[in-house]
Amino acid sequence: MDAVLVLLLSLPCLLLLSLWRRGSGRGRLPPGPTPLPIIGNTLQIDFKNLNKSLNNFSKVYGPVFTLYLGMQPTVVLHGYDAVKEALIDHGEEFSGRGRLPLVDKANRGFGIAFSNGSTWREMRRFSLMTLRNFGMGKRSIEECVQEEALCLVEELRKTKGSPCDPTFILGCAPCNVICSIIFKNRFAYKDPEFLNLIEKLNENIKVLSSPWIQVCNKFPVLMDYLPGSHDTLLKNFAYLKNYFMDKVREHEETLDVNNPQDFIDCFLIKMKQEKDNHQSEFNYENLACTINNLFGAGTETTSTTLRYSLLLLMKHPHITAKVQEEIDRVIGRHRSPCMQDRSQMPYTDAVLHEIQRYIDLLPTNLPHAVTCDAKFRNYLIPKGTTILTSLTSVLHDNKEFPNPEIFDPGHFLDKSGNFTKSDYFMPFSTGKRICVGEGLARMELFLFLTTILQNFKLKPLVDPKDIHTIPVANGFAALPPSYQLCFISV
């Protein structure tokens, strides 16, 4: 009995010693709060408002500090200088993808967003090249987005000015753009197949933003023994993979290697070219996961930003009026907006940038990891250590953006009303892991929003001062609260 008691009393000490040796053995990690055995600093973190916790830690430990999320150390970078120094100045060393056990369980190291090494490099290089060849940032994709913007307007007209929740319609438009790039065809908004796809994508982002998933990623063993929303996520991933593979099989039957029609065709041609290379990254697993990544990044992030945009524009009708005045002056009512218009619309451009800055869609970015033992600010961070970058601390820096908690397009305008860029504008991250679809997302936001405001007045159901803009979830992504509005034709 005495031996058992001694063992129980010794166990916490041994675990603390193990944690200390992790931090002081192979490397010299930055300072941070003292972790508890097994659970690390979990009890000291508010996972419902992670940014507030990180901000408080930074005040005590500085812009670079270590947290133990479970038993594994995570180095946190807080503030523009630390984030820029790591992701840009030391870009190669900090270009790894940190572990997200739940997503890793679904992707198994394939695709773009959550892969590493040669898989990541090959999939990223191929995706960028293919998207550019199919007109990403060029006229062909622009025409596709313009066409979808007109379809979006027609769907909004069907509401006939009645109150509606725009979530579904605003999800359809960017999803259809991705469908056009991946599958070469768009869907009718009421198509059952399309509705199912939208539902799964919407559900995934909600699940990923829940506090339970944050806990599961810190203590992955829970996923093996406890039921929860992680089961829903894994089922959705499996459904989407099967759906995409059905599309791949259809493409194999009609493939013309001399005339590729879309992303899948290009990938299948590359697979044929490398069929004798046994180490090739071009296989069905990478194709399915890459498509899934493009849908996840290209649909939910854009639709959530659009949804948040309308909420903010209703909250600030004087800003909306100035945007619509600029639309009338530069574009008029009788032609569709185009990307060339943006350079002549500094106020609208500033509003779009301010929306992305203010909503802070991915507060802590996707986790990075160091690809080798990295020397950084007199610390030695061991290879594989997870790196958490606080994009909130950059986008809401009060020196670069005075009163950052206030929605103010003036953050991106000079005294003469000209649009001004900021190095602190990092909603798509920065460095080697910057979002592959940044150019497409920025095009969609400009064309969709200007087309909506060209055709409708936004009428809230409550007084603008009573509109709440605080996000309902602030874990993986910041989601706007639910709301309704009326689209009044002009």
From TrEMBL:
Its cofactor is heme. It is an enzyme of class 1 (oxidoreductase). PROSITE patterns: CYTOCHROME_P450. GO terms for cellular component: endoplasmic reticulum membrane. This is unspecific monooxygenase. GO terms for biological process: organic acid metabolic process; xenobiotic metabolic process. Keywords: Endoplasmic reticulum, Heme, Iron, Membrane, Metal-binding, Microsome, Monooxygenase, Oxidoreductase, Signal. It holds the Pfam family p450. SUPFAM superfamilies: Cytochrome P450. It comes from Dipodomys ordii (Ord's kangaroo rat). CDD domains: CYP2C-like.
